[in-house]
Design a protein that fits this description.
Blueprint: H1 3-20, E1 29-34, E2 43-45, E3 50-55, E4 61-66, H2 76-86, H3 92-105, H4 113-128, H5 133-143, H6 152-165, H7 169-182, H8 187-199, H9 203-216, H10 221-233, H11 237-245, H12 252-268, H13 272-281
Antiparallel strand pairs: 1-4, 2-3, 3-4
Helix pairs in contact: 4-6, 5-6, 6-7, 7-8, 8-9, 9-10, 10-11, 10-12, 12-13
Length: 282
């Protein structure tokens, strides 16, 4: 019985301590803030102090202990994500239209103005080459606006090949990337870049470039045959057969040369019977 007054007094003291401390704020209100996505930080800055943010895992509401008349300032990560998510995204129709236009840009008539301008630009380029790679790059990018946009890739391709001849491989790789970005349906950009990487010993990089090019122009003989030779050279026979098998849904007139190369590959591997059977279908 003598211990009961002491227990009551100790509880009263603890209660008084907690009231004075910051652990309990009876006057503060719990405000529900609805957001469209889960925030990836643990605290929200207020005008006077930082307040702990309690994130509910099962709902999209966060409860913030907010005193009255105190404005919440959102940290920068949220503003950045808002701008990023609100940015306009190209729909599929727009992308298809761009790809269709790029394909049509490759079709040029003999005496078209773009072809004549491109020819004159190439003659000037030969004169610029005498001044070195740095000045040539500057002049090309200064004068390229005189050409129609659909032939810009040709001017950059000439510049990339010149950089390659000058052993400026870093600049050449960057320029080849620009070429394939401007005109992904032109096999020259993919082919020349892949050849350069092969010469430098970057076989994996060469394979990646050839595969990317074949996604845009899957029946291009130059890219396809180069990919077959690279895979056969590296001993990736299954990949060679996979590439040949991808032609099964195409017409024989479009893939005759590629299928013939696949038959010759089987003959080189010692599969003579398989090669003979395949020849009968051709």
């Amino acid at each position: 019985m003598s211990n009961e007054p002491n227990e009551i007094s100790s509880k009263a003291n603890l209660k008084a301590v907690f009231k004075k401390s910051n652990f309990i704020k009876p006057k503060s209100k719990m405000v529900a803030v609805t957001t469209k996505r889960k925030l990836n930080f643990d605290y929200v800055e207020t005008k006077k102090s930082r307040k702990l943010l309690f994130v509910s895992e099962n709902t999209n509401k966060e409860l913030i202990s907010e005193p009255s008349r105190e404005k919440i300032y959102t940290p920068k990560p949220v503003k950045f994500m808002d701008q990023k998510l609100s940015a306009p995204v190209q729909n599929k129709e727009t992308i298809h239209e761009i790809l269709r236009r790029l394909k049509n840009d490759l079709i040029e008539k003999e005496n078209s103005p773009s072809k004549i301008l491109s020819k004159n630009f190439k003659e000037s380029f030969k004169e610029w080459e005498k001044e070195g790679i740095s000045k040539t790059i500057t002049k090309v990018f200064d004068k390229i606006s005189d050409l129609p946009k659909k032939v810009h890739w040709k001017a950059i391709l000439d510049l990339a090949e010149f950089a390659k001849r000058e052993n400026e491989f870093t600049e050449a790789a960057t320029l080849f990337k620009i070429v394939t970005h401007l005109q992904p349906y032109a096999h020259q950009g993919w082919m020349e870049h892949a050849k350069m990487e092969e010469e430098l010993g970057n076989i994996n990089r060469c394979r990646v470039l050839l595969k990317r090019g074949l996604k845009f122009i899957p029946l291009n003989e130059n890219l396809f045959l180069k990919a077959l030779k690279i895979e056969e050279k590296e001993g990736n026979f299954n990949e060679v057969r996979r590439l040949i098998g991808s032609l099964k849904n195409n017409r024989i007139e479009e893939t005759f040369k590629l299928l013939l190369e696949g038959i010759l590959f089987e003959g080189r591997c010692g599969n003579v019977k398989i090669a003979q059977k395949a020849l009968k279908f051709l």
